[in-house]
Design a protein that fits this description.
With about 425 residues, this protein is an alpha/beta fold. It contains 16 helices and 19 strands. Helix 10 links the parallel strand 16 and strand 17.
Length: about 425
């Protein structure tokens, strides 16, 4: 189909259907998960005179409500794919069922173009499921596949049956996400910057967004203002990888506007905050503005792990950040901290030490199981021990790799670390 970006730029007065596929995995949690990139694209295309519609299989497959606007997602057990046959865990389809999806498609006017997004590389089974069904309903409508999986595994993604695959980042965030395509959305989403200035050896941010760029504060405020206009929206999730970078010139200005105009909203940082940026002033801004979910990116206390994370945090900086957050008004239970497990070269004792360190300060340790991500330095290291990673994205699954394939940690050790992190004592 040629250049994906040029093709989208040429679209005028077309009917466009965007789809967020279901997730096929051992587990799935709604950490304010919405297809932000797709929503920006749909708004951009609407601005250019096209009509747009959306089917979000995760949103429309929601079940019981949880906290801060999130929902538990409906699931049904399905057969495990061949690479997972040896994994002693149940495998699920999360989101809309085939019957519900087909019913939704049957009530949708034939689109001129269909845009399907993708999340994790190892979620491609849901993408394939989606494309196969859509083709039966709209055989003449071209399908364009974009998102994280498409960018990180373009060769593999081209086998999914789409007519075009996004291989380069699309920067169209000058428009707000089309949240109005949801009926009674429970939370809003935004991002104040694209990419990240750091270059962590396990992270694909540089691959997905080679250039780091701040968005104007006025643009973000306009975005939040629009989303807060929905009576059901009480929460806003920030998708930033680097929310606090250059905080004096950007984040603090944003907070002042948020406090002034949106005192009724609650804010969340599911991607984790840069610990070294949380001085007393920053902690106070977070608390007084209404940031409720505080996730800190520690990753580990071992020097090799800290170096892999661009040396963005060391133990004294973490202690300092926790003290500042407590002084600002947060409780110990509010301060959740990501600790990576399963990195190449990382052993059981290293992770255990990090968990004990976090808990000694009264904070909550959240284990983040390592997933080998194509395009990262550590992916190449992992692939030396497991070459199949380069051929089969299903092996990128953090549950599978960290718990059953990684040479760094055993399943028994991993469970021991999970138990330690959850232990309230």
């Amino acid at each position: 189909m040629g250049d994906f970006t040029a093709y989208l730029n040429d679209l005028r007065y077309k009917k466009i259907l965007g789809i967020n596929p279901p997730v096929f995995d051992f587990a799935f949690f709604d950490f304010w998960a919405k297809p932000l990139g797709l929503l920006y694209i749909l708004e951009y295309l609407r601005h250019r005179g096209n009509s747009v519609d959306l089917i979000d299989c995760i949103y429309e497959g929601r079940d019981k409500p949880k906290t801060y606007g999130r929902y538990k997602t409906k699931r049904i057990e399905i057969e495990k794919p061949l690479p997972y046959k040896h994994i002693p865990r149940k495998f699920y389809h999360y989101g809309m069922t085939k019957e519900s999806f087909e019913e939704k498609l049957s009530k949708t006017k034939t689109p001129d173009i269909i845009l399907i997004t993708s999340g994790m590389t190892y979620w491609y089974l849901g993408v394939k499921w989606c494309i196969d069904i859509v083709k039966k309903f709209f055989p003449k409508a071209p399908i364009l596949l974009g998102g994280i999986y498409a960018q990180l595994c373009p060769g593999h993604a081209q086998k999914m049956g789409a007519d075009g695959v996004q291989t380069m980042p699309l920067d169209i965030s000058y428009f707000r996400p089309s949240l109005d395509l949801y009926k009674n959305p429970e939370y809003g989403i935004t991002i104040t910057s694209i990419g990240c200035p750091l270059n962590c050896r396990y992270c694909a941010s540089k691959k997905l967004w080679p250039h780091y760029k701040k968005r104007p504060v006025a643009q973000v405020i306009d975005e939040i203002s629009f989303q807060s206009g929905f009576a059901t929206v009480k929460d806003i999730a920030f998708y930033d990888d680097a929310l606090l970078i250059d905080k004096e010139n950007h984040f603090y200005s944003l907070c002042e506007k948020l406090k002034e105009n949106f005192g009724h909203l609650r804010y969340h940082t599911p991607n984790g905050l840069h610990v070294r940026e949380i001085d007393e002033t920053c902690a106070r801004y977070l608390y007084e503005t209404g940031f409720k979910t505080i996730r800190l990116s520690l990753e580990g206390t071992d020097p090799s792990v800290q170096k892999a994370g661009s040396d963005k945090v060391h133990d004294p900086q973490y202690i300092w950040a926790v003290e500042n957050l407590l002084k600002a008004g947060y409780s110990h239970s509010n301060i959740e901290t990501y600790i990576l497990v399963g990195l190449p070269g990382q052993n059981y004792e290293s992770v255990k030490k990090a968990i004990i360190f976090v808990k000694s300060l009264g904070a909550t340790a959240k284990l983040a199981e390592y997933s080998p991500i194509p395009g990262t330095f550590m992916f190449e290291e992992s692939a030396k021990a497991l070459p199949a990673l380069k051929e089969e994205p299903l092996y990128h699954n953090n549950t599978v790799y960290c718990g059953y394939l990684s040479p760094e940690i055993t399943q028994k050790e991993l469970q021991s670390l999970k138990d330690l992190a959850k232990d309230p004592t």
